[in-house]
Inverse folding.
């Protein structure tokens, strides 16, 4: 049976974002940056408008290559292409080839939000569940429902959302929150997402769940509309920058997540000029903030 190699590079004093771009020119199967931190210490995802430098202290770069590739030769090429004085240290993991479709599917299981709500990948056919089921096609970091911030939002939606509400999901990703709001409570939902590939994934998830939700890129979205509820599960720094826009868009309530507990005060401070946010729930170091204009 053929085999593969995962080669983890140790690149001290090097911006791994820059290394990633340069190493992509190597003749390898894939180049991946992996966060080494536990979930509640991770930044989760980066701000595409202002990418931060990442280092070997918190992340690592992994090269995936065919098992027949000479590791010594590859490391020599890494030294040359990155302009290093000496060859970098590395760790090597060798593993056998397998049915990668089956393997990938095995990584995504049912995610139970509550006794009456679950998220499942599209290939699961179990029909014994008596509650609401949201089907998701996992795709490149767009959200599968497993992250604590998504779970926090879904729990709130299931318990607090009222039927037929006009709702904006800003940073909609795979569309999980939009689909749940529309499918369970017949809400009139609009999604906004910066990544066109995520919108493609969300549209496919619409098809899987038999819903009709429109997703917009920010440049095409009308900021003059008002929504009963604005939900945004994105990076804390972006939530801060969106405060003025959300003030225009929010008619009644706002729900914010993607926030570490130690970031909550800065979000509350930024929004206090127009709404009183309160920390209403938390999970594994992440929190959920809610504000009501009528309170």
């Amino acid at each position: 049976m053929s085999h593969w190699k995962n080669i983890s590079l140790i690149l001290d004093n090097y911006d791994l974002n820059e290394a990633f771009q340069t190493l992509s020119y190597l003749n390898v199967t894939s180049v991946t940056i992996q966060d080494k931190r536990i979930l509640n210490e991770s930044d989760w995802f980066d701000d595409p408008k202002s990418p931060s430098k990442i280092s070997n202290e918190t992340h690592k770069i992994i090269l995936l290559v065919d098992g027949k590739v000479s590791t010594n030769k590859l490391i020599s090429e890494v030294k040359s292409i990155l302009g290093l004085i000496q060859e970098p240290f590395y760790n090597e993991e060798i593993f056998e080839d397998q049915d990668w479709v089956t393997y990938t599917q095995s990584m995504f299981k049912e995610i139970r939000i509550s006794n009456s709500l679950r998220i499942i990948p599209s290939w699961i056919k179990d029909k014994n569940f008596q509650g609401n089921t949201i089907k998701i096609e996992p795709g490149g970091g767009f959200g599968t429902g497993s992250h604590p911030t998504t779970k926090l939002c879904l729990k709130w939606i299931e318990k607090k959302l009222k039927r037929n509400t006009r709702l904006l999901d800003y940073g909609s990703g795979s569309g999980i929150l939009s689909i749940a709001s529309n499918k369970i409570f017949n809400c009139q939902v609009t999604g906004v997402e910066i990544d066109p590939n995520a919108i493609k994934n969300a549209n496919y998830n619409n098809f899987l769940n038999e819903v009709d939700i429109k997703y917009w890129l920010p440049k095409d979205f009308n900021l003059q509309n008002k929504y009963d509820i604005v939900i945004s599960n994105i990076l804390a720094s972006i939530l801060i920058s969106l405060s003025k826009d959300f003030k225009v868009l929010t008619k009644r309530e706002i729900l914010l997540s993607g926030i570490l507990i130690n970031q909550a005060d800065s979000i509350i401070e930024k929004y206090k000029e127009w709404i009183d946010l309160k920390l209403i729930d938390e999970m594994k170091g992440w929190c959920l903030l809610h504000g009501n204009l009528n309170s």
Notes: The chain has two domains: 3-97, 108-292. The first helix runs from residue 16 to 23. DSSP finds nine helices and 14 strands in the chain. The first strand starts at residue 3 and ends at 10.
